[in-house]
Write a structure and sequence with these properties.
The chain contains 21 helices and 18 strands. It is of the alpha/beta class and 593 residues long. Strand 4 and strand 5 form a beta hairpin. This is Probable bifunctional folylpolyglutamate synthase/dihydropteroate synthase.
Amino acid sequence: MNSLYLSRRPLLWHPTILGAAARCPTTSSTTATAAARLRISSQRFLCSGTSFPQHYHRQGARGTAARHVFHYQKPTPLTVRCGSSSTQDGTSSQDTATGTISNNNANSTEFSSWEDKKDAAHSEYEHWVRRLYMTNMFNPVKLGLENIQRIHEQLGNPMDDPNVTVIHIAGTNGKGSVALKIAKTLEFLDDGLTVGLFCSPHVSSFRERMQINSELISEQEVVQYLPRIYEICQQHDIPATFFEVTTALAFLFYQQRGANVVVLETGLGGRLDSTNIVAQPACAVITSIGLEHTRILGDTVELIALEKGGIIKPNRPVLVGSQVPHDVLRQCARDKGASGYYTCEDILENEEQHQQSADYPDYDQENSRIAMATLRLLEQKEEKRIPWSRPIPDDILQRGTSARPPCRFEPVQLDQGQLVILDVAHNPPAMQYLMRKLRTTYPNAKFRIVVGMSRDKDTKLCAQYMLEGGVHDPEAIHLVQASHPRAALLEDILEASPELQGCHYDLEDRSVTRQIQLGLDRMTGSSEEILVVCGSVFLMAEAREALGFDEPRDSEYIAEVAGAHLRHGQENFASSSKKLDDDSSFPLPPPAA
Protein backbone atom coordinates (compact mmCIF):
# COMPACT_ATOMS: atom_id res chain seq x y z
CA MET A 1 0.00 0.00 0.00
CA ASN A 2 1.27 3.43 -0.85
CA SER A 3 0.53 6.84 0.64
CA LEU A 4 0.38 9.84 -1.67
CA TYR A 5 0.42 13.35 -0.26
CA LEU A 6 -1.43 15.77 -2.49
CA SER A 7 -0.59 19.42 -2.15
CA ARG A 8 -3.99 21.01 -2.77
CA ARG A 9 -6.81 18.53 -3.01
CA PRO A 10 -7.55 14.80 -3.02
CA LEU A 11 -7.22 12.77 -6.18
CA LEU A 12 -8.84 9.40 -6.86
CA TRP A 13 -7.18 7.31 -9.53
CA HIS A 14 -9.09 6.38 -12.66
CA PRO A 15 -7.81 4.77 -15.90
CA THR A 16 -7.42 8.12 -17.64
CA ILE A 17 -6.01 10.08 -14.73
CA LEU A 18 -2.39 8.95 -14.89
CA GLY A 19 -1.68 10.95 -18.02
CA ALA A 20 -3.32 14.00 -16.48
CA ALA A 21 -1.28 13.77 -13.29
CA ALA A 22 1.86 15.15 -14.85
CA ARG A 23 -0.09 17.98 -16.50
CA CYS A 24 -2.33 18.84 -13.57
CA PRO A 25 -1.32 22.20 -12.04
CA THR A 26 -2.73 21.13 -8.69
CA THR A 27 -0.58 18.02 -8.50
CA SER A 28 3.02 18.35 -7.37
CA SER A 29 5.85 16.92 -9.45
CA THR A 30 6.63 14.59 -6.56
CA THR A 31 3.11 13.19 -6.72
CA ALA A 32 3.27 12.82 -10.49
CA THR A 33 6.56 10.93 -10.20
CA ALA A 34 5.14 8.67 -7.52
CA ALA A 35 2.11 8.01 -9.70
CA ALA A 36 4.29 7.08 -12.64
CA ARG A 37 6.25 4.63 -10.51
CA LEU A 38 3.05 2.90 -9.51
CA ARG A 39 2.38 2.03 -13.17
CA ILE A 40 -1.34 2.19 -12.80
CA SER A 41 -2.31 3.59 -16.18
CA SER A 42 -4.66 0.72 -16.94
CA GLN A 43 -5.96 -0.05 -13.46
CA ARG A 44 -8.03 1.73 -10.87
CA PHE A 45 -6.38 2.45 -7.57
CA LEU A 46 -8.98 3.50 -5.10
CA CYS A 47 -9.28 4.66 -1.51
CA SER A 48 -8.74 1.60 0.61
CA GLY A 49 -10.23 2.53 3.95
CA THR A 50 -13.03 4.40 5.57
CA SER A 51 -10.91 6.48 7.90
CA PHE A 52 -9.08 8.83 5.56
CA PRO A 53 -11.54 11.70 5.11
CA GLN A 54 -12.52 12.08 8.74
CA HIS A 55 -8.94 12.01 9.97
CA TYR A 56 -6.89 13.46 7.15
CA HIS A 57 -7.13 16.98 8.55
CA ARG A 58 -5.23 15.88 11.64
CA GLN A 59 -2.19 15.07 9.52
CA GLY A 60 -1.38 18.65 8.55
CA ALA A 61 1.46 20.72 9.91
CA ARG A 62 0.53 23.26 12.55
CA GLY A 63 -0.24 26.70 11.25
CA THR A 64 -0.95 25.53 7.70
CA ALA A 65 -3.81 23.91 5.87
CA ALA A 66 -3.82 20.17 6.42
CA ARG A 67 -2.31 17.99 3.74
CA HIS A 68 -4.59 15.38 2.19
CA VAL A 69 -3.50 11.84 2.96
CA PHE A 70 -4.89 8.99 0.89
CA HIS A 71 -4.00 5.33 0.62
CA TYR A 72 -4.38 3.46 -2.63
CA GLN A 73 -4.73 -0.21 -3.39
CA LYS A 74 -5.82 -2.26 -6.33
CA PRO A 75 -9.38 -3.39 -5.60
CA THR A 76 -10.81 -6.76 -6.46
CA PRO A 77 -13.26 -6.26 -9.36
CA LEU A 78 -16.71 -6.08 -7.84
CA THR A 79 -20.23 -5.67 -9.09
CA VAL A 80 -23.37 -5.94 -7.00
CA ARG A 81 -27.05 -6.68 -7.45
CA CYS A 82 -29.51 -5.03 -5.15
CA GLY A 83 -32.78 -6.41 -3.85
CA SER A 84 -35.30 -5.03 -1.39
CA SER A 85 -34.43 -4.02 2.13
CA SER A 86 -35.57 -1.48 4.67
CA THR A 87 -33.79 1.85 5.18
CA GLN A 88 -33.65 4.27 8.09
CA ASP A 89 -36.62 6.24 6.85
CA GLY A 90 -38.71 3.16 6.21
CA THR A 91 -38.59 3.40 2.43
CA SER A 92 -37.58 0.54 0.20
CA SER A 93 -33.88 0.40 -0.55
CA GLN A 94 -31.53 -2.31 -1.79
CA ASP A 95 -29.40 -5.14 -0.46
CA THR A 96 -26.09 -5.94 -2.11
CA ALA A 97 -25.13 -9.31 -3.50
CA THR A 98 -23.77 -9.92 -6.99
CA GLY A 99 -24.19 -8.62 -10.51
CA THR A 100 -25.79 -5.18 -11.02
CA ILE A 101 -27.49 -2.39 -9.18
CA SER A 102 -31.20 -2.49 -9.94
CA ASN A 103 -33.33 0.58 -9.38
CA ASN A 104 -37.05 0.46 -8.73
CA ASN A 105 -37.64 1.92 -12.17
CA ALA A 106 -37.54 -0.27 -15.23
CA ASN A 107 -34.15 0.94 -16.41
CA SER A 108 -31.61 -0.66 -14.09
CA THR A 109 -28.06 0.65 -14.23
CA GLU A 110 -25.05 -1.66 -14.24
CA PHE A 111 -21.72 -0.48 -12.89
CA SER A 112 -18.37 -1.77 -11.70
CA SER A 113 -17.37 -0.82 -8.19
CA TRP A 114 -15.30 2.37 -8.27
CA GLU A 115 -14.77 2.20 -4.53
CA ASP A 116 -13.56 -0.75 -2.50
CA LYS A 117 -15.43 -3.80 -1.29
CA LYS A 118 -16.89 -1.97 1.70
CA ASP A 119 -19.51 -0.44 -0.60
CA ALA A 120 -21.18 -3.85 -0.83
CA ALA A 121 -22.02 -3.71 2.87
CA HIS A 122 -23.93 -0.46 2.66
CA SER A 123 -27.25 0.61 1.24
CA GLU A 124 -27.70 1.83 -2.29
CA TYR A 125 -28.66 5.26 -0.93
CA GLU A 126 -25.35 5.48 0.91
CA HIS A 127 -23.49 4.43 -2.23
CA TRP A 128 -25.05 7.10 -4.44
CA VAL A 129 -24.81 9.97 -1.97
CA ARG A 130 -21.22 9.05 -1.15
CA ARG A 131 -20.47 9.01 -4.84
CA LEU A 132 -22.17 12.38 -5.30
CA TYR A 133 -19.94 13.95 -2.64
CA MET A 134 -16.88 12.64 -4.45
CA THR A 135 -17.90 14.00 -7.86
CA ASN A 136 -15.77 17.14 -7.58
CA MET A 137 -12.69 15.00 -7.06
CA PHE A 138 -13.06 13.92 -10.68
CA ASN A 139 -14.49 17.00 -12.37
CA PRO A 140 -13.02 20.50 -12.47
CA VAL A 141 -15.49 23.11 -11.26
CA LYS A 142 -16.37 25.05 -14.38
CA LEU A 143 -18.04 28.39 -13.77
CA GLY A 144 -21.13 28.76 -15.89
CA LEU A 145 -24.58 27.39 -16.59
CA GLU A 146 -23.78 25.14 -19.55
CA ASN A 147 -23.63 21.88 -17.60
CA ILE A 148 -26.87 22.35 -15.69
CA GLN A 149 -28.65 23.66 -18.80
CA ARG A 150 -27.70 20.53 -20.74
CA ILE A 151 -28.82 18.25 -17.92
CA HIS A 152 -32.04 20.23 -17.49
CA GLU A 153 -32.79 19.89 -21.20
CA GLN A 154 -32.24 16.13 -21.12
CA LEU A 155 -34.62 15.89 -18.15
CA GLY A 156 -37.31 17.68 -20.17
CA ASN A 157 -36.84 21.19 -18.72
CA PRO A 158 -38.95 20.55 -15.60
CA MET A 159 -38.41 24.04 -14.16
CA ASP A 160 -39.67 25.76 -17.32
CA ASP A 161 -43.21 24.52 -16.66
CA PRO A 162 -45.47 27.63 -16.70
CA ASN A 163 -47.61 25.99 -14.02
CA VAL A 164 -44.73 26.11 -11.51
CA THR A 165 -44.26 29.33 -9.55
CA VAL A 166 -40.58 29.80 -8.67
CA ILE A 167 -39.38 32.23 -6.00
CA HIS A 168 -35.62 32.67 -6.43
CA ILE A 169 -33.59 33.89 -3.43
CA ALA A 170 -29.96 35.04 -3.18
CA GLY A 171 -28.01 36.96 -0.55
CA THR A 172 -24.97 36.92 1.68
CA ASN A 173 -26.94 36.18 4.84
CA GLY A 174 -30.55 35.29 5.46
CA LYS A 175 -31.44 33.57 2.20
CA GLY A 176 -31.96 30.18 3.82
CA SER A 177 -34.15 31.62 6.56
CA VAL A 178 -36.21 33.67 4.11
CA ALA A 179 -36.70 30.63 1.88
CA LEU A 180 -37.91 28.53 4.81
CA LYS A 181 -40.27 31.25 6.06
CA ILE A 182 -41.87 31.63 2.62
CA ALA A 183 -42.24 27.87 2.15
CA LYS A 184 -43.73 27.39 5.63
CA THR A 185 -46.24 30.20 5.14
CA LEU A 186 -47.50 28.68 1.90
CA GLU A 187 -47.77 25.26 3.55
CA PHE A 188 -49.81 26.72 6.42
CA LEU A 189 -52.12 28.42 3.92
CA ASP A 190 -53.53 24.96 3.16
CA ASP A 191 -54.76 26.00 -0.26
CA GLY A 192 -53.90 22.82 -2.13
CA LEU A 193 -50.32 23.91 -2.73
CA THR A 194 -47.43 21.52 -3.22
CA VAL A 195 -44.46 23.58 -2.06
CA GLY A 196 -40.91 22.61 -2.93
CA LEU A 197 -37.95 23.99 -0.98
CA PHE A 198 -34.31 23.86 -2.09
CA CYS A 199 -31.73 24.90 0.51
CA SER A 200 -28.13 24.32 1.55
CA PRO A 201 -26.08 23.34 3.39
CA HIS A 202 -27.80 20.60 5.34
CA VAL A 203 -27.31 19.91 9.04
CA SER A 204 -27.70 16.15 9.52
CA SER A 205 -28.80 14.57 6.25
CA PHE A 206 -28.25 15.31 2.58
CA ARG A 207 -32.00 14.80 2.12
CA GLU A 208 -32.71 18.09 3.94
CA ARG A 209 -31.62 19.99 0.82
CA MET A 210 -34.81 19.21 -1.10
CA GLN A 211 -38.25 19.03 0.45
CA ILE A 212 -41.93 19.00 -0.49
CA ASN A 213 -44.26 20.47 2.14
CA SER A 214 -41.53 19.92 4.77
CA GLU A 215 -41.15 16.25 3.77
CA LEU A 216 -37.57 15.37 2.88
CA ILE A 217 -36.80 13.59 -0.36
CA SER A 218 -36.81 9.88 0.44
CA GLU A 219 -33.83 7.60 0.16
CA GLN A 220 -35.73 5.62 -2.45
CA GLU A 221 -36.20 8.74 -4.60
CA VAL A 222 -32.51 9.61 -4.35
CA VAL A 223 -31.65 6.08 -5.50
CA GLN A 224 -34.18 6.30 -8.31
CA TYR A 225 -33.17 9.71 -9.72
CA LEU A 226 -29.41 10.01 -9.21
CA PRO A 227 -28.48 7.14 -11.58
CA ARG A 228 -30.62 8.74 -14.27
CA ILE A 229 -28.74 12.04 -13.92
CA TYR A 230 -25.34 10.34 -13.95
CA GLU A 231 -26.36 8.35 -17.02
CA ILE A 232 -27.24 11.61 -18.80
CA CYS A 233 -23.88 13.07 -17.80
CA GLN A 234 -22.02 10.05 -19.12
CA GLN A 235 -23.96 9.74 -22.38
CA HIS A 236 -23.63 13.44 -23.22
CA ASP A 237 -20.13 13.98 -21.79
CA ILE A 238 -21.29 16.53 -19.20
CA PRO A 239 -18.65 17.07 -16.46
CA ALA A 240 -21.23 18.02 -13.85
CA THR A 241 -20.17 19.05 -10.34
CA PHE A 242 -21.67 18.16 -6.97
CA PHE A 243 -23.94 21.19 -6.85
CA GLU A 244 -25.04 20.84 -10.47
CA VAL A 245 -26.03 17.21 -9.94
CA THR A 246 -27.74 18.11 -6.66
CA THR A 247 -29.69 20.91 -8.36
CA ALA A 248 -30.77 18.59 -11.17
CA LEU A 249 -31.85 16.01 -8.59
CA ALA A 250 -34.00 18.61 -6.85
CA PHE A 251 -35.61 19.76 -10.11
CA LEU A 252 -36.48 16.18 -11.07
CA PHE A 253 -37.84 15.54 -7.57
CA TYR A 254 -40.14 18.58 -7.73
CA GLN A 255 -41.41 17.56 -11.15
CA GLN A 256 -42.16 14.00 -10.06
CA ARG A 257 -43.95 15.18 -6.91
CA GLY A 258 -46.03 17.72 -8.86
CA ALA A 259 -44.81 20.85 -7.08
CA ASN A 260 -46.66 24.01 -8.14
CA VAL A 261 -44.52 26.36 -6.02
CA VAL A 262 -40.73 26.02 -5.68
CA VAL A 263 -38.68 28.22 -3.35
CA LEU A 264 -35.08 28.15 -4.62
CA GLU A 265 -32.13 29.26 -2.52
CA THR A 266 -28.95 29.89 -4.49
CA GLY A 267 -25.83 28.02 -3.53
CA LEU A 268 -23.15 30.63 -4.23
CA GLY A 269 -23.50 34.07 -5.80
CA GLY A 270 -26.34 34.12 -8.29
CA ARG A 271 -25.35 34.95 -11.85
CA LEU A 272 -23.54 31.66 -12.44
CA ASP A 273 -25.27 29.60 -9.76
CA SER A 274 -26.86 26.37 -10.98
CA THR A 275 -30.30 27.49 -9.84
CA ASN A 276 -30.15 30.45 -12.24
CA ILE A 277 -31.32 28.47 -15.26
CA VAL A 278 -34.89 29.26 -14.20
CA ALA A 279 -35.88 31.69 -16.95
CA GLN A 280 -39.10 33.15 -15.56
CA PRO A 281 -39.31 33.12 -11.76
CA ALA A 282 -42.30 34.84 -10.24
CA CYS A 283 -39.94 37.01 -8.23
CA ALA A 284 -36.25 37.43 -7.42
CA VAL A 285 -35.28 38.18 -3.81
CA ILE A 286 -31.91 39.50 -2.59
CA THR A 287 -31.75 39.42 1.19
CA SER A 288 -28.44 41.14 1.98
CA ILE A 289 -25.03 41.88 0.51
CA GLY A 290 -21.75 41.60 2.39
CA LEU A 291 -18.17 40.54 1.84
CA GLU A 292 -18.02 36.78 1.36
CA HIS A 293 -16.19 34.39 -0.96
CA THR A 294 -14.23 37.40 -2.18
CA ARG A 295 -11.87 35.29 -4.30
CA ILE A 296 -14.87 34.07 -6.26
CA LEU A 297 -17.48 36.83 -6.18
CA GLY A 298 -15.27 39.91 -6.02
CA ASP A 299 -13.57 41.92 -3.32
CA THR A 300 -16.10 44.75 -2.97
CA VAL A 301 -19.73 44.85 -1.93
CA GLU A 302 -20.58 46.37 -5.32
CA LEU A 303 -19.04 43.49 -7.28
CA ILE A 304 -20.74 40.93 -5.07
CA ALA A 305 -24.05 42.75 -5.55
CA LEU A 306 -23.68 42.45 -9.32
CA GLU A 307 -23.11 38.70 -9.02
CA LYS A 308 -26.13 38.20 -6.81
CA GLY A 309 -28.17 40.57 -8.96
CA GLY A 310 -27.65 38.08 -11.77
CA ILE A 311 -30.84 36.29 -10.68
CA ILE A 312 -32.95 39.32 -11.69
CA LYS A 313 -34.97 38.53 -14.83
CA PRO A 314 -36.73 40.64 -17.49
CA ASN A 315 -40.38 41.49 -16.79
CA ARG A 316 -40.18 40.08 -13.28
CA PRO A 317 -39.99 41.99 -9.98
CA VAL A 318 -37.10 41.98 -7.55
CA LEU A 319 -37.42 42.58 -3.81
CA VAL A 320 -34.38 43.49 -1.71
CA GLY A 321 -33.59 43.70 1.99
CA SER A 322 -32.26 46.75 3.78
CA GLN A 323 -28.59 45.65 3.90
CA VAL A 324 -27.81 46.01 0.18
CA PRO A 325 -26.21 48.67 -2.07
CA HIS A 326 -29.45 49.97 -3.54
CA ASP A 327 -27.84 52.08 -6.25
CA VAL A 328 -26.04 49.07 -7.72
CA LEU A 329 -29.00 46.71 -7.56
CA ARG A 330 -31.50 49.30 -8.78
CA GLN A 331 -29.35 49.93 -11.85
CA CYS A 332 -28.96 46.18 -12.32
CA ALA A 333 -32.75 45.81 -12.28
CA ARG A 334 -33.08 48.55 -14.92
CA ASP A 335 -30.43 46.98 -17.12
CA LYS A 336 -32.15 43.60 -16.98
CA GLY A 337 -35.61 45.02 -17.63
CA ALA A 338 -37.15 44.01 -14.31
CA SER A 339 -40.80 44.93 -13.90
CA GLY A 340 -40.10 46.62 -10.57
CA TYR A 341 -37.53 47.19 -7.82
CA TYR A 342 -39.07 46.93 -4.35
CA THR A 343 -38.00 47.19 -0.73
CA CYS A 344 -39.91 45.96 2.31
CA GLU A 345 -40.93 49.56 3.02
CA ASP A 346 -42.57 49.74 -0.41
CA ILE A 347 -44.78 46.73 0.30
CA LEU A 348 -45.58 46.41 3.99
CA GLU A 349 -47.93 48.68 5.89
CA ASN A 350 -46.88 50.29 9.18
CA GLU A 351 -43.26 49.70 8.21
CA GLU A 352 -42.05 52.36 10.61
CA GLN A 353 -42.72 49.88 13.41
CA HIS A 354 -40.02 47.58 12.09
CA GLN A 355 -37.08 49.90 11.55
CA GLN A 356 -33.76 48.26 12.41
CA SER A 357 -31.02 49.58 14.65
CA ALA A 358 -27.83 50.04 12.65
CA ASP A 359 -25.76 49.07 15.70
CA TYR A 360 -27.80 46.03 16.69
CA PRO A 361 -30.03 44.76 13.88
CA ASP A 362 -32.40 41.89 14.53
CA TYR A 363 -31.63 39.63 11.60
CA ASP A 364 -34.49 37.23 12.21
CA GLN A 365 -36.93 40.13 12.21
CA GLU A 366 -35.36 41.40 8.99
CA ASN A 367 -35.69 37.96 7.39
CA SER A 368 -39.33 37.76 8.44
CA ARG A 369 -40.01 41.17 6.90
CA ILE A 370 -38.42 40.12 3.62
CA ALA A 371 -40.50 36.93 3.53
CA MET A 372 -43.71 38.84 4.31
CA ALA A 373 -42.96 41.50 1.72
CA THR A 374 -42.19 38.89 -0.95
CA LEU A 375 -45.52 37.14 -0.48
CA ARG A 376 -47.48 40.39 -0.36
CA LEU A 377 -45.68 41.60 -3.49
CA LEU A 378 -46.71 38.47 -5.39
CA GLU A 379 -50.34 39.08 -4.40
CA GLN A 380 -50.38 42.56 -5.92
CA LYS A 381 -52.43 42.80 -9.08
CA GLU A 382 -49.63 44.09 -11.29
CA GLU A 383 -47.22 41.36 -10.17
CA LYS A 384 -49.62 38.51 -9.49
CA ARG A 385 -48.18 35.21 -10.68
CA ILE A 386 -49.31 32.86 -7.93
CA PRO A 387 -51.25 29.59 -7.71
CA TRP A 388 -52.97 30.27 -4.38
CA SER A 389 -56.55 31.43 -4.66
CA ARG A 390 -56.91 33.79 -1.70
CA PRO A 391 -54.83 36.41 0.09
CA ILE A 392 -52.74 34.99 2.89
CA PRO A 393 -54.40 35.86 6.24
CA ASP A 394 -52.24 37.90 8.60
CA ASP A 395 -52.22 35.20 11.28
CA ILE A 396 -50.92 32.59 8.84
CA LEU A 397 -48.35 35.06 7.52
CA GLN A 398 -47.16 35.73 11.06
CA ARG A 399 -47.05 32.03 11.92
CA GLY A 400 -45.15 31.05 8.79
CA THR A 401 -42.59 33.83 8.97
CA SER A 402 -41.89 33.01 12.62
CA ALA A 403 -40.34 29.71 11.54
CA ARG A 404 -36.57 29.34 11.77
CA PRO A 405 -34.19 26.84 10.21
CA PRO A 406 -32.58 24.45 12.68
CA CYS A 407 -29.53 25.69 14.57
CA ARG A 408 -30.34 29.37 14.14
CA PHE A 409 -30.47 30.49 17.77
CA GLU A 410 -32.36 27.27 18.47
CA PRO A 411 -33.17 26.66 22.15
CA VAL A 412 -33.09 23.07 23.40
CA GLN A 413 -34.47 22.29 26.86
CA LEU A 414 -32.97 19.07 28.20
CA ASP A 415 -34.86 16.67 30.47
CA GLN A 416 -32.45 17.51 33.28
CA GLY A 417 -33.48 21.16 33.02
CA GLN A 418 -30.41 22.60 31.31
CA LEU A 419 -30.89 25.00 28.40
CA VAL A 420 -28.73 24.62 25.29
CA ILE A 421 -28.62 27.12 22.41
CA LEU A 422 -27.56 25.85 18.97
CA ASP A 423 -26.36 28.42 16.44
CA VAL A 424 -24.36 28.12 13.23
CA ALA A 425 -22.53 31.45 13.76
CA HIS A 426 -19.36 30.74 11.81
CA ASN A 427 -17.55 34.02 11.11
CA PRO A 428 -16.67 37.15 13.13
CA PRO A 429 -19.80 39.22 12.28
CA ALA A 430 -22.07 36.28 13.03
CA MET A 431 -20.20 35.50 16.25
CA GLN A 432 -20.42 39.12 17.37
CA TYR A 433 -24.15 39.16 16.64
CA LEU A 434 -24.67 35.88 18.50
CA MET A 435 -22.93 37.20 21.61
CA ARG A 436 -25.05 40.35 21.56
CA LYS A 437 -28.22 38.33 21.03
CA LEU A 438 -27.36 36.07 23.96
CA ARG A 439 -26.74 39.03 26.26
CA THR A 440 -29.92 40.77 25.17
CA THR A 441 -32.15 37.68 25.39
CA TYR A 442 -30.66 36.33 28.61
CA PRO A 443 -29.19 39.38 30.39
CA ASN A 444 -28.57 37.62 33.71
CA ALA A 445 -27.27 34.31 32.39
CA LYS A 446 -23.83 32.76 32.59
CA PHE A 447 -22.70 31.02 29.43
CA ARG A 448 -20.49 28.08 28.60
CA ILE A 449 -19.56 27.89 24.92
CA VAL A 450 -18.74 24.76 22.93
CA VAL A 451 -17.14 26.00 19.73
CA GLY A 452 -15.37 24.64 16.68
CA MET A 453 -14.44 26.61 13.58
CA SER A 454 -13.69 26.07 9.92
CA ARG A 455 -10.10 26.55 8.91
CA ASP A 456 -10.90 29.37 6.46
CA LYS A 457 -12.42 31.61 9.15
CA ASP A 458 -10.81 34.25 11.38
CA THR A 459 -10.70 32.16 14.53
CA LYS A 460 -8.74 34.79 16.48
CA LEU A 461 -11.37 37.49 15.98
CA CYS A 462 -14.15 35.02 16.78
CA ALA A 463 -12.37 34.18 20.03
CA GLN A 464 -12.11 37.87 20.89
CA TYR A 465 -15.84 38.37 20.38
CA MET A 466 -16.64 35.35 22.56
CA LEU A 467 -14.48 36.65 25.40
CA GLU A 468 -15.66 40.25 25.10
CA GLY A 469 -19.36 39.65 24.61
CA GLY A 470 -20.28 36.18 25.81
CA VAL A 471 -17.89 34.92 28.49
CA HIS A 472 -15.03 36.71 30.20
CA ASP A 473 -13.10 33.65 31.34
CA PRO A 474 -11.59 31.19 28.82
CA GLU A 475 -12.36 28.41 31.30
CA ALA A 476 -15.97 28.67 30.07
CA ILE A 477 -14.94 27.89 26.48
CA HIS A 478 -14.73 24.32 25.16
CA LEU A 479 -12.86 23.83 21.88
CA VAL A 480 -13.85 21.00 19.54
CA GLN A 481 -12.84 19.81 16.09
CA ALA A 482 -15.57 18.51 13.80
CA SER A 483 -14.97 15.36 11.76
CA HIS A 484 -15.02 17.37 8.56
CA PRO A 485 -12.35 18.32 6.01
CA ARG A 486 -12.83 22.04 6.62
CA ALA A 487 -12.51 21.86 10.40
CA ALA A 488 -9.76 23.98 11.94
CA LEU A 489 -7.18 22.07 13.94
CA LEU A 490 -7.34 22.65 17.68
CA GLU A 491 -3.61 23.33 17.60
CA ASP A 492 -4.09 26.06 14.99
CA ILE A 493 -6.87 27.75 16.96
CA LEU A 494 -4.82 27.74 20.15
CA GLU A 495 -1.73 29.05 18.37
CA ALA A 496 -3.67 31.87 16.70
CA SER A 497 -5.56 32.81 19.88
CA PRO A 498 -3.31 32.90 22.97
CA GLU A 499 -6.15 34.56 24.85
CA LEU A 500 -7.83 31.13 24.93
CA GLN A 501 -5.17 29.86 27.31
CA GLY A 502 -7.06 27.98 30.00
CA CYS A 503 -9.97 26.81 27.84
CA HIS A 504 -11.08 23.17 27.71
CA TYR A 505 -9.91 20.90 24.89
CA ASP A 506 -8.88 17.30 24.45
CA LEU A 507 -6.33 16.37 21.79
CA GLU A 508 -7.18 12.69 22.22
CA ASP A 509 -10.94 13.13 21.90
CA ARG A 510 -11.72 16.26 19.89
CA SER A 511 -15.39 15.46 19.48
CA VAL A 512 -18.37 17.72 20.03
CA THR A 513 -20.03 15.06 22.18
CA ARG A 514 -17.11 14.99 24.62
CA GLN A 515 -17.12 18.75 25.25
CA ILE A 516 -20.92 19.03 25.39
CA GLN A 517 -20.94 16.45 28.16
CA LEU A 518 -18.08 18.21 29.95
CA GLY A 519 -19.85 21.56 29.62
CA LEU A 520 -23.08 20.16 31.04
CA ASP A 521 -21.17 18.53 33.89
CA ARG A 522 -19.57 21.90 34.74
CA MET A 523 -22.95 23.60 34.99
CA THR A 524 -24.35 23.84 38.51
CA GLY A 525 -27.97 23.33 37.50
CA SER A 526 -28.90 26.96 37.95
CA SER A 527 -31.51 28.35 35.56
CA GLU A 528 -29.07 31.21 34.99
CA GLU A 529 -26.59 28.92 33.19
CA ILE A 530 -26.80 28.23 29.45
CA LEU A 531 -24.67 26.03 27.21
CA VAL A 532 -24.09 27.45 23.71
CA VAL A 533 -22.89 25.30 20.78
CA CYS A 534 -21.66 27.34 17.81
CA GLY A 535 -18.90 27.96 15.28
CA SER A 536 -19.85 25.89 12.25
CA VAL A 537 -22.73 24.06 10.61
CA PHE A 538 -20.40 21.05 10.49
CA LEU A 539 -20.66 20.64 14.28
CA MET A 540 -24.40 20.52 14.41
CA ALA A 541 -25.18 16.97 13.32
CA GLU A 542 -23.00 15.54 16.09
CA ALA A 543 -24.29 18.09 18.59
CA ARG A 544 -27.92 17.27 17.83
CA GLU A 545 -27.26 13.55 18.12
CA ALA A 546 -25.50 14.09 21.46
CA LEU A 547 -28.50 16.06 22.70
CA GLY A 548 -30.93 13.28 21.76
CA PHE A 549 -32.56 14.60 18.58
CA ASP A 550 -34.48 11.87 16.75
CA GLU A 551 -34.14 12.90 13.11
CA PRO A 552 -32.70 11.55 9.85
CA ARG A 553 -28.92 11.57 9.89
CA ASP A 554 -26.58 10.27 7.25
CA SER A 555 -24.37 7.38 8.28
CA GLU A 556 -20.66 7.56 9.03
CA TYR A 557 -20.08 5.88 5.68
CA ILE A 558 -21.46 9.02 4.02
CA ALA A 559 -20.11 11.46 6.61
CA GLU A 560 -16.53 10.32 6.03
CA VAL A 561 -16.57 11.80 2.52
CA ALA A 562 -18.92 14.71 3.25
CA GLY A 563 -17.09 17.85 2.28
CA ALA A 564 -15.20 16.25 -0.60
CA HIS A 565 -17.14 18.60 -2.88
CA LEU A 566 -15.64 21.59 -1.00
CA ARG A 567 -11.96 20.73 -1.39
CA HIS A 568 -11.28 22.66 -4.59
CA GLY A 569 -9.35 25.88 -4.89
CA GLN A 570 -11.54 28.64 -6.31
CA GLU A 571 -10.90 31.76 -8.32
CA ASN A 572 -12.73 34.87 -9.35
CA PHE A 573 -15.74 34.82 -11.66
CA ALA A 574 -13.75 36.28 -14.52
CA SER A 575 -15.96 34.72 -17.18
CA SER A 576 -18.61 32.08 -17.49
CA SER A 577 -16.17 29.74 -19.21
CA LYS A 578 -13.25 30.09 -16.77
CA LYS A 579 -12.29 26.90 -14.94
CA LEU A 580 -11.11 26.70 -11.38
CA ASP A 581 -8.66 23.98 -12.33
CA ASP A 582 -7.14 23.15 -15.69
CA ASP A 583 -7.14 19.38 -15.17
CA SER A 584 -10.06 19.00 -17.54
CA SER A 585 -9.27 15.41 -18.39
CA PHE A 586 -10.50 14.23 -14.99
CA PRO A 587 -13.64 12.18 -15.78
CA LEU A 588 -16.92 11.56 -14.03
CA PRO A 589 -17.09 8.65 -11.63
CA PRO A 590 -18.21 5.98 -14.13
CA PRO A 591 -21.77 4.73 -13.59
CA ALA A 592 -21.33 1.85 -16.00
CA ALA A 593 -18.57 -0.60 -16.78
